[in-house]
Amino acid sequence: MIIKGNDYFFISENSNESTYWQNEIYPEWSSITTFRFCLPPKWGHFGFGVEPHYHDCDEIWLFTKGKGEVWLDDKIYKITPNTLVYTPMGVVHRFQMFTDFENTALVTRLERDKRPIHIIEEEHGAPKKTVLGFVVPGEENNGPVKNRGKRFPLTELRQVCLSKNTTIKKEELANNEYWTVIEGHVLVKIDRFETLMSTGDVALLKQGIVRELEASNGCRLALAKQ
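Structure (tokenized):
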């Protein structure tokens, strides 16, 4: 299910699974082309990891549960709940989890050769670097990202937990704002339009829109701001 407006875009979990790189259904005003809660059967378990690779786009992860390690160009960082990992185009990266985990993933539009794959240095050649990647530890990831540089496409990416009967009051957005539901349900209100979002659903809200959120039974969300 997809709901489109001039300044909002809602997509259900099933419709959001069509592609990972260069998702053409995302609106042009969005700086990202994928925002996805990642917990299919092969993910989310102790010992899971990925091979060293790089991309023809930027990739950003938010680990909302679990502990592990991530390598960015051979530099090792710890992963704890609410850790943000930024891997810009050309940075070789991999991660290994030591506990069960969950995360959300965002990617930007493909550039250069526009290869929608894990690009392996031994098979495809050495990457052309752009900027350095970085990691924001979970305990420090509670607002705008400091020293994010010129290429990082967001001002923040973090987990938001709403208790029962919580309302995020009406607000006119100063930036594009993106939400995905990790657990539970949240009601999003925009003027006279409203929709109930469930786990895996995504909302893209354009700068200038007035929105309100209600969580009658509590929920966990991932919030990204452009």
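The first strand starts at residue 2 and ends at 4. The radius of gyration is 17 Å.
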